[in-house]
Design a protein that fits this description.
InterPro entries: ComEC_N (IPR004477), Competence_DNA_uptake (IPR052159), DUF4131 (IPR025405). The protein has about 700 residues and is α+β, with helices and mostly antiparallel strands. The protein has 25 helices and 18 strands.
Length: about 700
Amino acid sequence: MVVTTTSEPGTVPAAGLRGALSAALLAQRGRLILWVPICLAFGIGGWFSLRIEPGLAEYAACGLGAGALFLLGRQAGEGAAPLFWGIALVLCGALLAGARAHSVAAPVLGFRYYGAIEGRIIDIDRSVSDKPRLTLDRVVLEDVAPSRTPARVRVSLHGQQGFIAPEPGLTVILTGHLSPPSGPVEPGGFDFRRMAWFERLGGVGYTRTPVLAAAPAEEGRAGLAIFRLRMAISEGVQARIPGEAGALAAAILTGDRSAMPRETVENLRNANLAHLLAISGLHMGLLTGAVFAALRAAMALIPWVALRLPTRKIAAAGALVVGAFYLALSGGAVSTTRAFVMVSVMLVAVLLERRAISLRSVALAATVLLVLTPETLFGPSFQMSFAATTALVAAFGALKPHRERMARLPRWLAPAVAVLISSAVAGAATAPFSAAHFNRIADYGLLANLASVPLMGALVMPSAVAAAVLWPIGLSWVGLWLMRWGLEWILFVAARVSALDGAVTHVIAPGPWVLPLLSLGFLVTLLWRGPLRWSGLLAMVAALGLWTQADRPDVLISDTGGVVGVMGPEGRSLSRPKGDGFAALSWLENDGDGADQAEAAARPGFTGDRFERRAQAGALTVRHLTGKTGLARLGTACGADVLVTNQPLTNRPEGACRLFDPESLRKSGAVSIRIGDEGPVFETVAERTGHRMWAP
């Protein structure tokens, strides 16, 4: 007897669905390792999106669940195992994020502090306002118990300085202001508190008094040998290459950007050349490639060595050692670590006589970074670095069948074509991420890269290697002199391109689901085998469609009550031309607006003097009072639907208004208001973020 089964019209039998899924997974054999970092990223992203801090029970459940799924995968057969293992990796990603967050836990200031600050210098850079900035550890605060003292603080230096020369290991003392790391400037915005938590940074502030030495640098050198070497090399390079070129050379060679003028950095960003500042795959590849070629050439000059020793493997080992030193010297940034892992895989493959460059090495680099530092997933460096690398490896892999055509090109033209292809591919892959994080697109970026990147490979990095080789005999100036002219050209290109009309297009900030959907679509299109890969294109189109529909809040209120922004016909109008500048500039950038704070404050929208400002947002009246003079005008009634002040209130005014003063804003964080058909919708940073370790 034959038994038949029927199914509802338009449905797929369960067995058929399972078979299709199994066939699709079997088609990925040999490439499943590429999905390991992607699954980890899902778990990490899910953990960070939680609004309530998980407890021990939740972590135990994740661990047990991951273990059970791995075991089930081993029993499920080749067709279904990847599904079980993928879900297990998602749970492992969440566990990694939680473990990392707890491992870096350190005290965070819970109040505003003013008084004596003592600490050891462990980093020197520049603030957003282009002032020197010191990061200190071994912190001592007056009348603050050690158990409540942050592990690290960061202090910007204003006022008259110059009494000391800041150097790594120097213990300094100063009188300054410190406050807890601030939260997002608007709900859903960049959360500096979270970044500070993973850097163990428990207080940020400034000083207007002189910074003095409390103990010599020799007493604080422990653990800072590499950092001291980095700063010594940076100072030496800048002493021999004057001006902006010297500052750029120091940034390229050591990762020290403290001498880079803000205007120069902006020019490089507007020309899409800022990637030259980050020690990344370009720098690591050029440096190790130059060392590899130099070592092979040197050994080829000695017949006995060339004929008897594996010169290719020796050169690879030497390049690997130099790459490791370069990684340590640069401070181990995300882009540098990724580049070193990639180069290491390539050079080890040379040692083992295996294929050097593949998507597997990219996946390995991503996995290493996500395991060690899961928080880097959300940074522009991680996203842009791996987007560019993945796209480049996939693109040049697709061009392999056309290698013969490429070989027919004239020798002088082949490198130019390779640079053109790599710049176009990398630029297209990173453009959405750059636009999302920095709210700008460099329209002439391809032109600037074509004019600059070849010189980096042909002159700048080889000259840097020559300078290092000639340093022991006192001739490093020869390499640095050659390097200078290449850097001068790059700075010239950046300045000219950034000055062109329409060099930069400002872009509105995308919604929270745009980048995840875009990234998933990008990866599915590049990595999946079978017809399902084209669904990745649909996902990318959908993400870009969502981006075009992004809207911005009608009203924004800073977390200090110091500035209010109301959307008007000419863009966002600000209540003040100065004050709370970081919040104001961030709002404008997220609006896709290139104006500065003073320009936005001059727009139609707010009326009144500088102490009392009024604006109309739809049917909503907004009143902003600043300073004691503004607060004195409050009276007994709100006088508006929304009342904002940066002064503490002793008595609440009469009337059914929404009131935001420093005390309430300290609890809620910044506020956004969207005006819809059913009335205004208020959202605070606290509501969006929830209660996490960095946002209790």
